[in-house]
Amino acid sequence: xxxxxxNEGGSDxxxxxxxxxxxxxxxxxxxxxxxxxxVLFADNSTGKPTSWKWKFNDKGxxxxxxxxxxxxxxxxxxxxxxxxxxNIAGTSAPYCREIVVSGAGVExxxxxxxxxxxxxxxxxxxxxxLPVKYENSHLTINIIDITGKVQSKQFLSGKNILxxxxxxxxxxxxxxxxxxxxxxxxxxxxxxx
Length: 193
Known about the structure:
Shape: rod-shaped
Strand content: over 45%
Helix content: under 10%
Structural class: mainly beta
CATH architecture of the largest domain: Sandwich
Number of strands: 17
Number of helices: 1
Mean pLDDT: 85
Distance between the termini: 68 Å
């Protein structure tokens, strides 16, 4: 690179070799799981990235090019979430972290909203209030952990208010399902303390 300076007395030039170091960015991120199954992601990458590529490893459209996305997972369980960033020098290696998701796929249709689960969270038992039309039905109640494994299966009938005992289940986030034969009538997230 050369610099030439000119004035009334003439001109002078100086040339020097200039080395421009281009450093690849390093991808890194943090996340917040307070509102499962929606997770907030925060880019903490270095190297002044100008573009971001997130892969959530969930079902369907599960990628984003937003710097700090929020993503609502469609499936429970472990998800290997990866971020790759790019700057003027090129693209980083992927940075991946395992995130355990719970409460995905819990729907809010009218039939589910007609049911009441209380207390929630609970320690020893909870109650489920169903519409009266299920009063004499033979019901199956499943308590399912975040991996999809049934931790407890109970069979009840004769009432539209059901008492569900915790039994030996560990503290954590679970899904309670109530089935009337092949009809799912309750699917709701609960916390056991």
